[in-house]
Amino acid sequence: MKLSPNKEQAKRVKPQVLTSTRIFVQAALNAVIGQTMPQRSQHPLVYILLIWTSILSIILLVFITLFFTQGQSSNSSTVGLTSPLHCTSCSTEILNLQAQELELPNSTIEWTARQPCSNLIRNANETVNTLHIKKDGNYILNLRVTLSACGETSVLDKSHSVTLKLDGKVWLMGWTDTKSNSTGLLSRAKDLSAGSKVQITIDPPACVNTSLSMTHLDIIWLYK
After folding, report:
1. pTM above the 0.85 mark?
2. Tens digit of pLDDT for each residue in 132-151?
3. Contact residues for 175 (Cβ-Cβ < 8 A; gap 6+)
4. CA distance readout (Å), 52 to 18, 42, 45
5. Whether the bond into 105 is cis, omega within 30 of 0
6. Residue 111: count of CB within 10 angstroms of its CB
C-alpha cells in the first residue's frame, strides 16, 4: 500500500523532532546540573572562608592589644627619667619679666621680675639688663619685643633685629615687623647651668613698648 506524500513527509519529520527534542532536553539538563553543582560545592567553601577570616581577625585583635599594652607599660617605666615632656613627678617654675621704660633709644632692654622672690635668677628684685641664671635645669625661654616711638624721632619705619644672647653668644634672633612693630613670639628650649648670662639687645637702638602684653620675657624652668 502506497502512502500519500503528506504521510511520508510526516513520518520523516517525526524522528527529527524527537531527536531535536532529546538534544534540547539533554542540553537543558546539562545546564541545570552545571549551575546547581557548583552552588552545592560552594557552600562549604564559603563557610570555611568565613571561619578562617574570623580566626585571622581574632588573632590580629589579640596582637594589637598585646602590642599597645606592652608599649604603655614600657613607657610608664621610663617616665621621669629622660624626657621632660613625660615627667610626672617633676616640679616647674615660671618667671615673668617686664621691660622697663627708657626715655632714649637703647640697644639693651632692662627687665624687672614680676616675681621678686623667684630663685631662677639672681637679684630678682632689681632692674637689670643682664639676667644671671641661678639654677641648673632644662629651660624654655619665650620672648616678645614690641617697639614704640620715643621723642621726636620715630624708629618705626624700618625693621629692627632683636637678639637673645646666652653668655655673649647669639642664641635666639628675630626681626620686628614694620606694621606691627613686634617680633611676635620667639621661643627656644635649652639645658642651662647656674651662672649662665641672658641678655636681650636691639639693633639699631630703639624704644620699647613696656606693656606686658606687648613686650615680655618668660623663663620656664622644668627640672634637672
Report:
1. no
2. 999 999 999 999 999 988 76
3. 159, 160, 161, 162, 183
4. 51, 15, 10
5. no
6. 27
